[in-house]
Amino acid sequence: MLVSVDESGNQSTKDPYPFVIGIVIIRDEERYKKDYHNFFGDRIFKYSEDKPKISNVEGNVKGEFISFLSARIFSIAIIVEKFEDIKSLAVDIYGKLVAFHLRKIDLKGKVKVLYDRNPLLKKDEKLYIQNNFHYWLKYIKGIWISVSFEGKDKDITIFPADYVAGLTRDYELCMEREIKNEKYCGLIREWIDLLSPCIYFYTTSEIREIVRELN
């Protein structure tokens, strides 16, 4: 089993728009990779670059990949309301909050948690997450956890988390009418319904409260 994690948005309060963490559970990693290569070969997907876009709603690259993902992943999206810069909460968000939500999933066997390479986390913070992730899961029986921060933009198991984070962010911006392109927002709503991520909203103070319970 593989869990991939990626983000969309800016952690600073100077950017008023949502910051989103995408978490994707791929229960059969080998089957996913085989299906991916059968459908797409060596294609690379990146939500921010794929069409349709806000400025150009032609094409269906996003829709094609989301349709593929809908039958192969389970996804969670965490939207953080930034009342403060979240850099000081990096370990809490990327480590403890991710683990908190994975506790609700039926995890079994070997589980690899793969993060996209993340400039927000320092080397010692990554090591802290690696050493303590199993503890935050409350020692779920019957699993073996490994944590890696070596995910790359061109890694086909990172693509889904990138898409979940980007799609959820666009969905929230459409709901708040920050994106005013109705045709594009109509597509976003269709894709959210198709992918059906479990979406959670937290303020930074609520994250601190959850983290206190995990310590």
Fold and architecture overview:
The structure is a single chain. The chain has about 220 residues and is of the alpha/beta class. The chain has one domain (about 1-215): Nucleotidyltransferase, domain 5 (2-Layer Sandwich), CATH 3.30.420. About 40% of the residues lie in helices and about 20% in strands. It is built from 7 helices and 6 strands; from the N terminus they run E-E-H-H-E-H-E-H-E-H-H-E-H. It has a 6-stranded mixed beta sheet, with helices on both faces. Helix 4 links the parallel strand 4 and strand 5 (about 145-150). Helix 2 runs parallel beside helix 6, helix 3 (about 90-100) runs parallel beside helix 4 (about 125-135) and helix 5 (about 160-175) crosses helix 6. The longest helix is centred in the last third of the chain and has 17 residues, at about 160-175. The protein is globular, with a radius of gyration of 17 Å. The protein starts with a strand and ends with a helix. The model has no long low-confidence stretch (mean pLDDT about 95).
